[in-house]
TrEMBL record:
Coiled coil: none annotated. Pfam families: Thioredoxin. InterPro entries: Thioredoxin-like_sf, Thioredoxin_domain. This is Thioredoxin. The lineage of its organism: Bacteria, Bacillati, Actinomycetota, Actinomycetes, Kitasatosporales. It comes from Streptomyces rimosus subsp. rimosus. Residues 17-97 form the Thioredoxin domain. Gene3D superfamilies: Glutaredoxin.
Length: 105
């Protein structure tokens, strides 16, 4: 997709193998469930990090990435390249499948 994010742009370190980036907002109910799902998956897969970004506090990044709703989840590979993107509350199986495209052994 050509998009790459680094630690400086996100305000958090990238995972060694992949990073699950979640854009959230304060009053978003699906964001809470998404946070739990992504944290569980990150705990299951070694080298994967979950980073949550407050969309309202990072409007420049939201505009740059064209985030239109929360939650939006970006799956980055170990180099910070965007591999998958989804808006709405993801299912755990879908997150695991998306990680398969990002994680290199």
């Amino acid at each position: 997709m050509g998009t790459r994010l680094g630690a400086a742009g996100m305000g958090a370190e990238l995972g060694e193998r992949a990073t699950l980036v979640q854009f959230s907002s304060a009053f978003c109910q699906p964001c809470r469930a998404t946070r739990r799902t992504l944290a569980e998956v990150a705990d299951m897969v070694e080298g994967v990090t979950h980073v949550e970004i407050d969309a309202e506090a990072h409007l420049d990044l939201v505009r740059t990435l064209r985030i239109e709703r929360t939650p939006t989840v970006l799956v980055l590979d170990g180099d910070g390249a965007l591999v998958r993107r989804a808006a709405g509350q993801p299912r755990k199986a879908d997150v695991i499948a998306a990680l398969g495209a990002a994680v290199r052994d």
